[in-house]
């Protein structure tokens, strides 16, 4: 990689400072805390939740999260009856503006091969066990539509403000590979 | 193409290994560079996002499966710069530039990075063609084995499902990856039952959706 980068820099195709800025964006500025704020707001604000259901791209943009790999967003909502899980079997499509760059497991052959066929077994790998009666709905991101899972709001969080709620929202819960943390799990 | 990237439904890769949420994005300094350089070169407009996906996916299957994620990116980028005539094979072998670079129409400066990322690359396009399908329609995916780029996974070919969402017209990767233009056409989320895709033994509660362009679909 080092040789390829130096060739491209020597030829004047890329600017090292721009490469640094791209890396820095996803290491320090854009990550799953963005998505956690979207979810927390959806839990607390019925009008925002409705907007997220109708036009997720616009609702998420209203919070300032826009751009590459989030140009066309769809939000899906977990309920006791239906659990959503997102995968990209063909590569690693992932909603960058709200979740940042995907974790290694999301890009890995085990996840990509199995999520569409045996999602319950995949969830077991994450320590998640759902009731038999909960249907599983898998979204394979084969186009430029990007999916955000809104996990179920944990019990015992009535009256919590959005900042406190956002601390319960994990990255994995917004892919569907996990659940939001309970207040007990989040307690220091 | 029926490449190694099309992993849905394969067996034998073992368990998923979760990572703590605190795990960094990059696991070695060179991975950072592979990411940044790939995006910066993409911003020069020398190829489309679909062409860059195809460059990675058309690696020989054994090589694809044996390579780490950012190794695949690096190998894909090498293929792209070679194919675009921006770097010579002799230069890749030498590990340094042997000739002045070509003139590119665009180059990404550090100052332009935030705006470029915020703009992204929307793929929705205006079209005068009315959609052939509506939400709720039953459709059957085509059976096809194109040697070129496609986003119709093997596990979902020749299957019957239901249109769940209509997304308007979007750039068609199968042409756009090969210099064939954007050829925008209607895109739909199509939902299949687990048993339609996987047959006997499928989880009875499972449904799986893909996003499918109109050309992938017949009425059912």
Automatic annotation (TrEMBL), chain A:
Protein residues bound to Fe(3+): 88, 91-93
EC number: 4.2.1.84
InterPro entries: CN_Hdrase_a/SCN_Hdrase_g_sf (IPR036648), CN_Hdrtase_a/SCN_Hdrlase_g (IPR004232), CN_Hdrtase_asu/SCN_Hdrlase_gsu (IPR023900), Nitrile_hydratase_asu (IPR018141)
Catalytic function, reaction form: an aliphatic primary amide = an aliphatic nitrile + H2O
Keywords (A to Z) from UniProt: Iron, Lyase, Metal-binding
Single GO molecular function: nitrile hydratase activity
Domain Nitrile hydratase alpha/Thiocyanate hydrolase gamma, residue spans: 2-177
Superkingdom field: Bacteria
Top-level EC class as recorded in UniProt: lyase
Pfam family, one: NHase_alpha
Protein family according to the UniProt entry: Belongs to the nitrile hydratase subunit alpha family.
Name recorded for this polypeptide: nitrile hydratase
Organism per entry: Salinarimonas ramus
TrEMBL record, chain B:
Lipoprotein keyword on record: no
Domain Nitrile hydratase beta subunit, residue spans: 122-218
One function term, GO molecular function aspect: transition metal ion binding
Keyword Lyase: yes
Organism domain of life: Bacteria
Any Pfam family: NHase_beta_C
Keywords: Lyase
Protein name: Nitrile hydratase subunit beta
Species of the source: Salinarimonas ramus
Taxonomic placement: Bacteria, Pseudomonadati, Pseudomonadota, Alphaproteobacteria, Hyphomicrobiales
